[in-house]
Amino acid sequence: MINVASPDHYRLLAPFYESLGRLLLGNQFQASKTAFLHTIEKGDRVLVLGGGAGANMPELLRRCGKKGKVVYMEASASMIRLCRTGLDRDLLEQVVFIHASTFDALPDLKFDVVITQYFLDVLPDNKIDLLFETIQSKVDKHTVWIFADFYALASKMRLLKAMINAFRLLTRHARKDLPEYEGYFNKWGWQEMESMIYCQGFYQARIYGLAPNSINPETSS
Fold this sequence. Notes:
The protein is an alpha/beta fold. The protein has helices at residues 17-32, 57-64, 77-85, 89-92, 125-136, 157-171, 181-187; strands spanning 2-3, 45-49, 69-74, 95-99, 111-117, 139-150, 190-198, 203-210. Helices cover 32% and strands 24% of the residues.
């Protein structure tokens, strides 16, 4: 495991994270985390950012197979421990865990799949830009980005505000609102390929591919 000093703001929340998600948001929330995983192929290199407790990792690893590799970056040591505990030993051999909160800790690899699920919503705007900038050097024209996150649905605003305030209190996240996700994907040359809507649109999953000419030909394959 690659370990870069990072405070564990999820230490108290981690043991209850998955059960709280199921209690508050239901089965559709869990289903959104498996959306588009079927696009992962044997031998793929997969980058998971902010993977939390890794509820979908067994399926993800089975799909990329023994010849594939998952780089799993998470700022919380408690979440990494939960993820590792949930994986069989043979699956653990396919994972490189990175305990860090800065994107410069990512290895110099090209990835076939990037996954961010309920991760961008906790990052400040400048760090989202930094993430996209960092990712551009680690993908090529064939890379897909699997994304899932919350959206500001009018009928769910009270719940959304309560969730944001709770995370600000418990995990010290700075955001008071949701990012304009599409603006970042468009800015950095990613085009939506398909989407899936859950809970009337309160949370959504999308898969993106790179638009033509958005990657420097010298760095793509």
